[in-house]
Amino acid sequence: GDSWGIFTFLCAALCNLPALPALNCTEELGAGQSIQKTYDLTRYLEHQLRTLAGTYLNYLGPPFNEPDFNPPRLARAERVPSATVDLDLWRGLTDNARLAANYRAYSRLLCYLRALDGQAGTAELRHRLGHFCSSLQGLVLSIAGVMSSLGYPLPAGPAGPPAGPPGTPVAPNDFLKKMDDFWLLKELQTWLWRSAKDFNRLKKKVPPAVVTLRLEARGF
């Protein structure tokens, strides 16, 4: 009699387990995996860019490949999305706003980099730029996946660089063109550095499903 009573109690308990916690765990696991993948890709791009930037700056020649070269940012470079935002201001944004800013910035930076790919003077440099562009395209898609997994819409509007007036040359002279390339790489390095920190913080906000399940089982 006691055994039958225990069996009946266990069956009733299993039948009455709520379905919602399991659904929540599945959603958080998907978001967590997407965030971790994006963080790993950001760190990989950081490493990849260090080699690419050195090779490209050597291609540009002096003074761009000199370690102490730190020119002021020209008005022309404002077309490249800047990552030089106050850190406290940046951290004060919502996760949605930071993700949207990252998505827009990398979409535009990718357009500029593809233009460099077509202008590079050596086959090796074109190959490296092409490989990096493919990786950066993967980052844009990965950020879109994170936003989707968290229920955020993708930013509206054009993702490419702003177009200049018809017939306007890309740069009035070779030096200013090289300056544009220099600032593109410099800003990209800063964006990747900050994005790695963004995704590292974001993944800490999304607990693994197994941890969530244990907390729910204990009644927290």
UniProtKB/TrEMBL annotation:
It is found in: Secreted. Residues 1-22 form the signal peptide. One of its GO terms (biological process) is cell surface receptor signaling pathway via JAK-STAT. Keywords: Cytokine, Glycoprotein, Secreted, Signal. GO terms for cellular component: CNTFR-CLCF1 complex; CRLF-CLCF1 complex; extracellular space. It holds the Pfam family PRF. InterPro entries: 4_helix_cytokine-like_core, PRF/CT. One of its GO terms (molecular function) is cytokine activity. In complex with CRLF1, forms a heterodimeric neurotropic cytokine that plays a crucial role during neuronal development. Also stimulates B-cells. Binds to and activates the ILST/gp130 receptor. Belongs to the IL-6 superfamily. Forms a heteromeric complex with cardiotrophin-like cytokine CRLF1/CLF-1; the CRLF1-CLCF1 complex is a ligand for the ciliary neurotrophic factor receptor/CNTFR. The CRLF1-CLCF1 heterodimer binds SORL1 (via N-terminal ectodomain); within this complex, the interaction is mediated predominantly by the CRLF1 moiety. The tripartite signaling complex formed by CRLF1, CLCF1 and CNTFR also binds SORL1. This is Cardiotrophin-like cytokine factor 1. It comes from Jacana jacana (Wattled jacana).
